[in-house]
Specification:
The chain is 24% helix and 35% strand. The protein is α+β, with helices and mostly antiparallel strands and 114 residues long. The chain starts with a helix and ends in a 17-residue tail after the last strand.
Length: 114
C-alpha cells in the first residue's frame, strides 16, 4: 500500500473513532459530520446542531495530506489526534506538519516544517 493511501486510511480511522466515542457526550440536538474528500485528501470533522438557543457549527478536526505528509490544519479539542497517529499508527514526526502553527514557529515543534 502506498503512503498516500495508508495515511488516508489512518486519518479516516482516527477521526471516525473520535466521532464515534464522543457521540454520546453530545447533546441530543448536536451531531458530528465526517467530511472526507479522498480525491483531494481533505479530512474534516464538524460538530453541528443546537445547544439550547445557541447554534453549534464548528470544525473539530481538519487534516490534509500534502506532498505525502499529514498537515494538521485544525484541532479544536484536547484529544491528541497527532499523538494517536504517532503512537498508535507509527506515523513519524517527519511526516506531520502542525499547520496551525505559523511557519516561523514550526522548526521549534519537532515536526516537519513543510
Amino acid at each position: 500500500m502506498d503512503k498516500l493511501t495508508h495515511y488516508s486510511e489512518l486519518i479516516q480511522e482516527a477521526i471516525t473513532y473520535y466521532a464515534t466515542t464522543r457521540r454520546m457526550i453530545n447533546g441530543p440536538n448536536t451531531d458530528y459530520q465526517l467530511i472526507f474528500d479522498t480525491k483531494n485528501h481533505h479530512y474534516q470533522l464538524y460538530r453541528v446542531g443546537w445547544e439550547g438557543l445557541e447554534r453549534v457549527h464548528y470544525c473539530v478536526f481538519h487534516l490534509d495530506i500534502i506532498n505525502d505528509k499529514i498537515w494538521a490544519q485544525e484541532d479544536a479539542t484536547d484529544y491528541d489526534i497527532i499523538g494517536v497517529l504517532e503512537d498508535e499508527h507509527h506515523v513519524p514526526k517527519s511526516d506531520i506538519v502542525l499547520a496551525f502553527h505559523a511557519p516561523y514557529r514550526r522548526p521549534y515543534t519537532g515536526y516537519a516544517v513543510a
